[in-house]
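Aim 2 progress update. The chain analyzed this quarter is reproduced below.
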Amino acid sequence: MKKLFLMMSAAFFSFYGMAQESQRQSKKEIRRQRINAIIKQEEEGVIKYRKHTAFGIKLTTDGYGGFLEIGRAQSVKKGLNFQFEITERKHPKEEKHQFNYSNTAPIIYGKMNFFYPVKLGVQQQFLLGNKSNKNGVSITGNVGGGLIAGLLRPYMIEVQRADGSTEFVKYDASDSSFIKDENYVGGPNFGTGWKYLKVTPGVYIKPALRFDYGKYNEVVSAIEVGLIGEFYTKKIPQMLEQKQKQFFFSAYVSLMFGKRK
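Predicted structure tokens:
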């Protein structure tokens, strides 16, 4: 009886192993067929997908940020990209000064507001050059624009009062008693100023070139370079004693990662 049980157990595990191996081979075969089909499409110069989702980071000539993109194919060579983006724009005259307080943030003299453009827009995408092989690079031209909510967070610094207490106040260079260095304790932290947040609306346009080097076109691995023009309904106060602007022009480069279906 014991030998029979062992023989039956061995047969069961052998059959189970064969079934598992067959299943793994079946999955490998399905993937191989799918990759072969994609390679054939690439060789024929035709790559078709329904949608993609990607995220990325962006460096601009005056700041940095991140974004989320959802794309929908309209045809083999055209598509629409819906984008949500948050950046921080720096003023070229910003200069940090560190005081003797080791645990405090540096101060930027004359800075009035942190400036965060939040963009919601759409881009039309055109295929300019397809991949010549699975390790090639496809090139697309993108042009579009959308709406901006320009968030202004007051730049608040920590000062020491006559009684020795400290508090965060809005920077005011017009107050002669306020700008004395001995009054400064440190710069703002990320939590200051949000309750005084103001919004200035605007619009933007953005032409760009995208270079996608993702294998088999299943994944989005791309570098995008482009230009951004932004126009706001009123001038943006970033720095004291500096010209305030309504129109901003910048160049950018971004890295993108995502998947296609």
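The CA atoms of residues 51 and 128 lie 18 Å apart. The longest strand covers residues 219-236. These observations will guide the mutagenesis experiments scheduled for the next reporting period.
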